[in-house]
Amino acid sequence: MERGEELATVLSSQVSGDAAGVAVARTVREMAAAAAALSRLIGRPPLEGRLGAAHGGANSDGDKQRRLDMVAEDMFSSALREAGVAAYLSEEVEEPAILDETGALAVAIDPLDGSSNIDVNAPIGTIFSIFPMPPEALAEPALAFRQKGRAQLAAGYFVYGPQTSLVISFGAGVQLFVLDRETDLFILVEPQIVIPPDNAEYAINASNYRHWHEPMKAYIDDCVKGEEGPRGRNFNMRWIASMVADTYRIFMRGGIFLYPADAREGYEQGRLRLLYEANPVAFLAEQAGGAATDGIDPILDRTPHAPHQRVPFIMGSIEKVERVRSYYLDTAPPWQAAPLFGRRGLLRT
Ligand code: F6P
Fold it and tell me: Given Cys at both, which of 34, 118, 188, 195 links 79, Cβ 3.0 to 4.6 Å?
């Protein structure tokens, strides 16, 4: 694998020659074509109306849908049908569906992440997670998405920003491609991304401070205290409110991303969706030498129970994610702890 190679060439060396490997390569090729087309659309003058204008509907999670959400949904569902994907789950659809009964793969996707950023010209993205298709899921498509994140064959995301890029892993490291807008080809610019271990930046929506549970407040308090606090160094905060953009920065220069559970109604399990946001980014993070947890346990060890379930999400350099874990273990996390049976309870389970 060499810098300057195009995606199709890298695909042939990265996936196995069996049916699943061939299907993964075809799926990624189709999604890359859809992402290039979406990137062109996003770059056009919006003379036919704002792409971020409300579409009128809401997705499975109650988020307002925008015009571009629906366009992206159409483009990626068509691409995945064309690729012969068996089971399909998207943020924009209520239930998983079968696209092709003969397919070898199940794909979970957020066709357009960060859609509140569309009209402010900030980066947005598409996140995807590719699993093998379990035969029993043909009769019950939801079963295709009950696999632990560790079973992912590949995962990645496209970012539509100053550059359109693809961060992807096939389970052997993480590669970065950038779209050449002249040729419409994704070109390899980094064959192995490694999350830098040391960086003094954290990403969190600090306006939720009053809703956070004690361990999260304590962790951020110690960062904010800077040189005068227990960490003995100054920190910087960044929050783009577009997970693809915040995590891209962390893959490039280190740091930590936090979307914890909090006390607001509907945020008892955080905000991000396990199947098409947390799982793929966690897979990439581990492949890039970083870590991703729900505060305590690795995201990739969770067995999903519902297509759109949320999960608290802490991702970044290993040392930072471990440090957050130590804060949670010090004061039992509210979503796991019952006084007797919680982690630090008398009868630890
Ligand atoms: O649902 C996804 C998302 O838009 C992420 O891309 C982003 O990190 C987060 O939500 C922003 O959430 P909030 O608006 O609560 O800061």
Answer: 34
